[in-house]
Automatic annotation (TrEMBL):
Record's protein name: mitogen-activated protein kinase kinase
Lineage: Bacteria, Pseudomonadati, Planctomycetota, Planctomycetia, Pirellulales
Domain Protein kinase per the UniProt entry, residue ranges: 11-270
Molecular function in Gene Ontology: ATP binding; protein kinase activity
Signal peptide: none
Species for this entry: Rubripirellula amarantea
E.C. designation(s): 2.7.12.2
SUPFAM superfamilies xrefs: Protein kinase-like (PK-like) (SSF56112)
Nucleotide-binding recorded as keyword: yes
Keywords for the protein's UniProt record, in alphabetical order: ATP-binding, Kinase, Nucleotide-binding, Transferase
CDD domains xrefs: STKc_PknB_like (cd14014)
Family the UniProt entry places it in: Belongs to the protein kinase superfamily. STE Ser/Thr protein kinase family. MAP kinase kinase subfamily.
Family matches, as Pfam families: Pkinase
Amino acid sequence: MSKSRDFLGPYRLARLIRVGSTAEVWEAIEENSQERFALKVLKESLKANREEINLLKHEYTVAKDLASPRIIKVVEYREDSRPMLVLELFSELNMKQALRTGPESLAFMLDKIVEQSAEGLYYMHTKNWIHLDVKPDNFLVSREGVVKLIDFTISEKKKTGLGRMFHRVKLAKGTRSYMAPEQIRRKVCDERTDIYSFGCVLYELATGKVPYTGDTPNDLLNKHLSASVPSPIVHNDNVTREFADLVKSMMAKRPDDRPPSMWEFLKVFRGVEIFKKRPRAPEVSVFDNNSSIRAPDDMIRKGGPIDDQE
Ligand SMILES: Nc1ncnc2c1ncn2[C@@H]1O[C@H](COP(=O)(O)OP(=O)(O)O)[C@@H](O)[C@H]1O
Ligand SMILES: [Mg+2]
């Protein structure tokens, strides 16, 4: 491979972490400092796509406003041979991948994971940003249960006053399994929209199952709009009544019936046990077969890309 293909600006590509629908995520080393970063690079076929470039720039605008240990840091936006974001490198394992091996992969440290995820969202909301794509794929988790929120592609500034009145209907965006009714209906969204989606995430973390499934995309959306809110206890009877009630309240159809803020959520959550009996750590850790960050002398490109888009 030629030198130019191995580099984007000063960043030497070390390993492909993941290929999504629009971007590749690479582990890379900055030549001068020898520091390691994650690069979110637009796919070759989209490198001149205005819309995708703008989304990436938008993600930079959002992320540079956020400085919290619970949120992935963004270093810069660059256009070398391809548009890209330079990000702090962290555990590449997202919650969805962990859940795929079963909820027990995280259950033994779920209180920490939930608290950390909630703190990331809380912080984002204090900066008046709404994430709008809260789902397990967009939280990175480390072996120690440290969580960082990622992917601000469709995040928006919270609308207040006149902004709420003159809200323009945009394309409904989000991920169907986790979308709040007001997001589906393209109404004004606020932090309670993220609280709904986060409720769906908690449901899945506690049970290994998404709260609603449908035979068709529309069927699924309709369930978010009108099906009765399921209890996580149905799929896991080790979940406490208090936690189940909290999750159900987050998934209320009307924003007014949900906890009003992540602060309120955290206050209640800190006084509640998730499980009746504390789950044990599985014998084989999900962090062992899903190699997290490798040693510097192990920087050869291995295996193919993992594409686990919905
Ligand atoms: N900073 C990072 N460090 C390590 N892995 C990351 C990082 N950012 C993203 N990833 C990996 O790449 C995946 C896709 O990133 P994301 O920003 O969500 O892109 P997309 O817009 O394609 O969903 C994540 O789920 C994670 O596995
Ligand atoms: Mg994502």
